[in-house]
Amino acid sequence: MTYFIDRRPNAKHKSAVNRQRFLERYRKHIKRSVEEAVNRRSITDMERGEKISIPAKDISEPVFQHGQGGARNIVSPGNKEFLQGDKIRRPGGQGGGGGAGEGGASNQGEGSDEFAFTLSREEFLEFVFDGLELPHLQRKPLKSLEEIKMVRAGLARDGVPSRISITRSMREAYARRIAMRAPIKRALKEAQEALAAEERKDPVLRNPARIVELKAEIERLEKRIEAVPFIDTYDLRYHQLAAQPQPSSQAVMFCVMDVSGSMTQNHKDIAKRFFLLLYLFLEKHYEKVELVFVRHHTAAREVNEEEFFYSRETGGTIVSSALNLVNKIIEKRYPAGQWNLYVAQASDGDNWDDDSNICRDLLVKQLMPQLQYYAYVEITPHDHQSLWHEYETVAAQFPERFAMRQIVDAGDIYPVFRELFKRRLSQER
């Protein structure tokens, strides 16, 4: 028998197993509290956990107790006041004192506040990004043989005990026992039949020596059957493992942010918070996702993470410069046959005259045939401009792989993010 012992270190006076059971049981309530917490706090403050509360009534446990009335003919252990047959006075009123939530002041009864506890950073992010994933993530052809997986490659008679195949070993042992016992059992049956025939003969014709000889033969054959081992080292079979190259599910996310003069500081803060939420989501759920940061005004540049979030460079607006740069980077470093390609773009929708048409053509003819998914968020409380309308044309041609949403204020960031990256049931695997 195999025993599994959980040796993960726990905090003092805490049980990891019980905590996980609690989080799973009240997932619905905790998720609602987490969503309220995300809307309250700054997205830039997502790195720490959160203290959340659950109404006490939602964590009450069902209990069984005796109701009013009914015939009871027992006396509970420890009772020193009543004897069998005594009648107990019915309690007056409507039960005990009022608890929390009952109106009116009272000099009796006890209440309970909401149940509060603290989620760790990992637990908090788990609830924040629950049900989200990169859309249309696919297995791509091999880029190299670096990603391998050990898979079973048949059975062998030699191996280590940890890889023994119990089912196959027992099957081999059973087949061996049948094969070794079969001729002995046939000889035993013949001897038993001969003994029975000899004993049925008339006492005058019966041969005592023959009877003794048959009984000795039967005893010898029965011992031979018992001597056949239940399992032998010859029966053991072991699983063999072989290194098998695996298709790579590597992906790259292009973060494209408009930093032109029309983007106010509030717009830029919202865009940075959106991309920070995206960064945390990818860091939490995926190991092989690269990020490419692109800032643009009249010209686009690939920058590092620090410059992407904190540079103060600004200028006019030509969105097509960013799309052209993304396309060049894909051709140079991330061929579509080997990478899952994603783009997330944030802009206020303002663009140079006639450039929106160029953006539409770039997307339809060059980018979208290569991309798995394109997410566009427009940060503006005003009416949409030409860029939005041209993107609507792209969305109509690629409804499953092009999504666009509007963000008015910081409170829209998290709901829009969940809508863009929610898990799709029909997604290809």
UniProtKB/TrEMBL annotation:
Q: Which InterPro entries match?
A: UPF0229, vWFA_dom_sf
Please give the Pfam families that the UniProt record associates with this protein: DUF444
Bias-annotated ranges (Gly residues): 92-106
Region (Disordered): which ranges? 68-112
Write out the similarity annotation: Belongs to the UPF0229 family.
Protein name listed in UniProt: UPF0229 protein GCM10011382_20060
Q: What organism does the record attribute this protein to?
A: Vreelandella lutescens
